[in-house]
Amino acid sequence: MTDHTGSASDAPVVRTTAGLVRGIRRAGSAAFLGIPFAQPPVGDLRFAGPAPMEPWEGVRDATAYGATAQRGDTGFTLIPEPSVPGDSTLNVNVFTPEADPSARRPVLVWIHGGGFVSGTPSSPWYDGSTFARDGIVLVALSYRLGFDGFGDIEGAPSNRGVRDWIAGLEWVRENIAAFGGDPDRVTIGGQSAGGGAVLTLLGMPAAQHLFRAAWSVSGALGDVPRADARARSERLAALAGVRADRPGLASVAEQTLHDLQERAAYAPARDRLVTVREMLAGIAWAPMIDRELLTRPTVEALGAGVGADKPLLIGAADDEFTMVAARIRRTLRFVPAGLALRAVGVAASVRRDYLRTNTGPRRAGTPALLGRYVTDRVFRALVARVATARAGAPAPTWVYRFGWRSPVIGWACHCLDVPFWFDGLDAAGVPEIAGDSPPRDLAVAMHRTAVGLVRDGVVSWERWSEHERPTRVFDSPAPDPAVVPDGYASVAALV
Question: pLDDT tens-digit profile of 196-236?
């Protein structure tokens, strides 16, 4: 999928607001990789807001992925996201059918996941050649991660990672026409933390001028209370032996803070359910309610009408994190489902209703039930909450579920749907999670849905409303009917 043809002499060159960039000509498309949209956030700019890129002389090479905020080898991850060393970590990758300024093609800006602490835009799964094939310009965006992007630091701007998203979108608005895109037809999309980023931006008044539609895949929200963010930052500073202000923390090496941030995130615990409890506690280093950019919790903002004029496609996989509980199945095999839910802090009234509406996972055993509960708490209940909050909005909200079970993992798990959405089943790393023969008809259907949203602002099924909750189910073989009356009824106890 990443093969290209042509020589340096016919490589495409585009003028951006900061200077000329040279990309790669491919069969039927072009790619421009690692274009900086802001200055490297190092030295005096460490813990600062994104600073506009200074102009450069000559033609800048954009034929290799840029530096990533993710550092070093992270080991096996569900999505292969290689780290690239370097300081200029605020960059974009642009994939276009052709860099024709007169084309005015629709644009998809993709925000990667990784729990806001890892991930990169350099994954082969985010290659935009299939979208370019279908007449869409795709931009994959980077941002600062973990404490660097989301820690609450006295004397530093809040939500630096969020400010990076905005700066990247501003770059798109100013430059994408030169790559063949239409700055007035931008859709923001993302998966996991990236899907949460989409919802955060959708509910943020300051970002409304930067896009016209939104697509949240398995979105995980931050919405961290500021008091919690400050407490974690103070714990991190104490671990590093410095004051919890910008000069103190800037005196500590980036790698040192990175190594300490997980210890500072959660209270120490040793029992077998600690991973489950941490997931249910919420994402530690993530967008916080700073009363400046994020003036209130995202679902509350959406319910109040922020972003109500923008179409939204939203959904999740059936068993995003079931595999986490499955890893401790020996511990859970003789534990009644109700007792397991109680052990992770689920109130009695919620337990009763949840067990009543989730008979299928309950029959599959306590590991499956507890894994489904984590999935529902973190992802699937959020889908229903967002869709319900926007039910009366002038722009539609379309809801889906991804139900195809991986023959490798055994579940419709987290990240499994990404290569289907991108129609990229041949990408490196897909067999490790999806097996050797994932259903191509499912990829065609899902990719067609994404293209319809980005290109035309519509999908093929009815919107979620106050009285009707149609849900498109993506599975193989295709379910009959493909659209069910309420695909998220089982999370009602958590909404």
Answer: 999 999 999 999 999 999 999 999 999 999 999 999 999 99
Tokens of 6: 């042509």
CA-based angle 177:179:180, to the nearest 5?
65
The region that residue 457 occupies, defined by phi over 0 for left and psi between -120 and 50 for alpha, beta otherwise, is left
Q: What is the pLDDT of residue 115?
A: 94
The yes/no answer on whether domain 8-223+271-319+373-494 falls in CATH 3.40.50.150 is no
437 is an active site residue: no
Residues 6+ apart with CB under 8 A from 150: 116, 144, 159, 160, 161, 222, 224, 229, 285, 286, 287, 288
The CA-based dihedral angle spanning residues 382, 385, 389, 394, taken in that order and rounded to the nearest 10 degrees:
60
pLDDT, one tens digit per residue, over 165-204 is 999 999 999 999 999 999 999 999 999 999 999 999 999 9
For the residues 254-258, what does the mean pLDDT come to? 94
Helix, coil or strand: residue 261: helix
pTM score over 0.90: yes
**Of the residues 118, 158, 192, 216, which is catalytic?**
192
Instruction: Answer yes or no: 300 catalytic.
Output: no
* Annotation marks residue 112 as catalytic: no
Phi, psi of 26 (to 5 degrees): -115, 175
